Amino acid sequence: MKVLFLGSSTFSKYVLEDMLSRGVNVTSVITQPDKPSGRGHKLMPTLIKTLALEKGIEVFTFDRLRKHMDEVKEIDYDISVVASFGQILPDEFLDYRFCINVHPSLLPKYRGATPLQSAILGGDKISGVTIMKVAREVDAGDIISQKEENIEGLYYSEVEEKLGKIGGEMVSEVIKNFGEGKLTMTPQDHSKAVLVSKLNKEDGVIDFNNSADMIVAKVRALSENVGTSFVTDGLKVKVERADKVEGVELEVGQIANNKKAFIIGCREGAIEIQRCKAESGKSMSGRDFLNGHNYLLGGKVDNA
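Below the sequence we write its predicted structure tokens.
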């Protein structure tokens, strides 16, 4: 069974790594073209391209798959697997060979671009992975396999790795069943669909008029990709790690006069900033940050 894999992200890398560790015969990979990165704008390959080349797998980088269908039809494969590829798949591709998707949510919940972040932002303790047949409507295909997983208290990168490895295991079994003609599929209940879109920097701004639980969820979901921040005394603070603290009473947005911990009051409860940095500074503990900015003690965040 020859597999064509389409992916571009860190999540797809975890999926592909697990598939290869299980002996799945991935013979070709399609990923996004190299993109400029860093101050020097040096062209950098996707993680998928790097991994595939290391494993001796044939790699294609197509900017628009629909423009390269003649080349796709020259690839020798029996089934295609898509995981966070980053392009809409054309109808011609879907009609050509059976195509399945590894999606990091329990569909029909969290269809769209940001299922991982949305689950964490929503305070979900349980998320999971869905393997589905790819349909023309985004993430609306029939479900082949689904597995729940606990994500409580985890950050985005931890959830991404956990679900990526689970997805690799699940899709490997689906490919085996496909080869043996044993696949069963169940239509989604479209009335229960929850659609999610891309997130931007504005989504990462922390509003201390929210509860401590909501703010901590935002930091876990967005600090590693979109970025989470607030401004105090004109200084932008980028928050990397935060947790809820009990037994502390502060006004909304007030910074505790406590050199040992960077604690800020919320609408409900308070949070401790465990790791952060100034906009152009280096990452450090909240305590070390306060040591360098002790004038903030007892003050308030802007716009609180």
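The mean pLDDT is 96.
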